[in-house]
Design a protein that fits this description.
Largest sheet: 7 strands, mixed
Shape: globular
Number of helices: 14
Structural class: alpha/beta
Helix content: 40-55%
Radius of gyration: 23 Å
Oligomer: single chain
Order of helices and strands: HHHHHEHEHEHEHEHEEHEEHEEHEEH
């Protein structure tokens, strides 16, 4: 281990210089322009949005979201964020919610609630199972591992949406929950949540909808007149739904919301300890204990700053990029889409060519894209920052495809992975 705590404190300038050298190796410092040339990790709502978020974040950096007593302002921000999400995701006066640190925590809280609910509703179930498709986010597998659940994973249909015959066939006396994506990250495809809602009601199981990617985009895309299927709490079988503010809410990482049909469902997220000798009790609504209120307040500020009009404008920008990119892909003979885009994701296939090599060629041109297998795909997820460079993207993609076809580029350069 080479890192040693300095015997004496270092000057601020020295610290900043060392960090700058470390940051120089990060991908966002190596691309031509990270905001416009990446389709991974960050969601840029504009320079003005960043300014608002950064200013508020610093104001709340040293607050602690653990204590509503000490920092009621942070609690108010959380309550308002839950109210914003409730309005956008089909909730009503009975809807309850929690603010978490991200989609994974929201998913863990959803499955914890489903598990604890099932313990009360079906005490005879000793080996609880959930059913999801292989397009569901891997956080469901992580949550199942943590919570002692058995995930039963079924293949999606040829359209990458949940095959409901397979889902129904996988359900048995141990099934406590089914999972739907709205949409799934990999191909941007919605599962048939309306049908899932009906099944959940008829079978008496919990339905969680993972809308972490699209939950704060789809309502505004619908406002623009695009077809968006029903997927939220307006469907009676949906017991919980998650959506990330740090995606299309354009806030800093990590702020997510999980909504429940009622507080009776939401109560299962709570951890409470009565206390001990000379120690007061301890109660948290989710997994997190102490954490800065900076990201929470920044998310609140961005929602207020943009308002519905601002979100609709950014949704329009996202969809314009998707339409132009789709047209460019269709113009290139070697390229096509695995499925028609349903929101902000394109899953691109290359007939007879190595998609990893195409991704590597795009990386050399300053773009960061995902490459997935099963089936092989070049993946992109658009933000408003991509729209101004849509034509450049199409040109660079065309040149990359042709370079790979000529054998000039191989997949020796890593194009990108979702998480590593």
């Amino acid at each position: 281990m080479n890192t040693v705590l300095p015997a004496h404190g270092l000057p601020r300038a020295s610290i900043e210089q060392e960090l700058a050298a470390m940051r120089a190796g990060d991908r966002d410092k190596q691309l031509l322009d990270w905001d416009s040339h990446t389709f991974l990790y960050t969601f840029n709502g504009g320079a003005d949005v960043k300014t608002v978020a950064e200013s508020v974040y610093l104001q709340f950096l040293w607050t602690d979201a653990l204590s509503a007593y000490s920092f009621p302002s942070v609690k108010q921000c959380q309550d308002d964020l839950i109210a914003f999400a409730t309005e956008l995701l089909g909730g009503d006066d009975r809807t309850a919610g929690r603010i978490s640190t991200g989609g994974t925590e929201s998913i863990i809280l959803a499955l914890k609630s489903a598990r604890n609910w099932a313990r009360e509703a079906y005490p005879e179930i000793t080996s609880p199972e959930i059913v999801c498709t292989n397009t569901a986010h891997p956080a469901f597998l992580k949550a199942s591992h943590i919570l002692g659940l058995t995930p039963v994973v079924v293949p999606a249909g040829t359209d990458f949406s949940a095959d409901m015959d397979a889902v129904k066939a996988a359900m048995n006396q141990n099934t406590i929950a089914i999972i739907g994506s709205a949409p799934a990250y990999w191909h941007g495809v919605y599962d048939p949540i309306e049908e899932m809602s009906d099944i959940a009601l008829s079978k008496g199981v919990w339905l969680h909808v993972d809308a972490c990617l699209g939950g704060l985009l789809a309502p505004f895309v619908r406002d623009l007149g695009y077809p968006v299927p029903r997927f939220d709490l307006s469907l009676p079988g949906v017991r919980s739904i998650s959506a990330d503010f740090h995606k299309y809410g354009y806030s800093p990482k990590g702020v997510s919301a999980i909504l429940f049909r009622s507080e009776d469902d939401a109560r299962h997220t709570i951890f409470e300890w009565a206390g001990g000798i000379d120690v007061a009790g301890y109660r948290t609504p989710g997994l997190s204990g102490t954490r800065s209120g900076g990201a929470i307040a920044a998310a609140w500020a961005v929602m207020k700053y943009l308002g519905r009009e601002g979100f609709v404008e950014r949704a329009a920008s996202v969809m314009r990029f998707i339409e132009r990119a789709k047209a460019g892909i269709e113009e290139e003979e070697a390229l096509s889409l695995h499925v028609e885009p349903q929101l902000s994701v394109l899953s691109i296939k290359a007939d007879g060519l190595d998609v990893e090599a195409i991704g590597a060629a795009m990386a050399e041109k300053g773009w960061l894209m995902n490459v997935f297998g099963g089936p092989p795909a070049l993946h992109l997820r658009a933000t408003p920052a991509n729209e101004p460079v849509a034509e450049q993207f199409v040109t660079d993609l065309r040149e990359s495809v042709r370079a790979v076809a000529r054998g000039e580029i191989t997949s020796t350069v890593r194009a990108g992975v979702y998480a590593d």
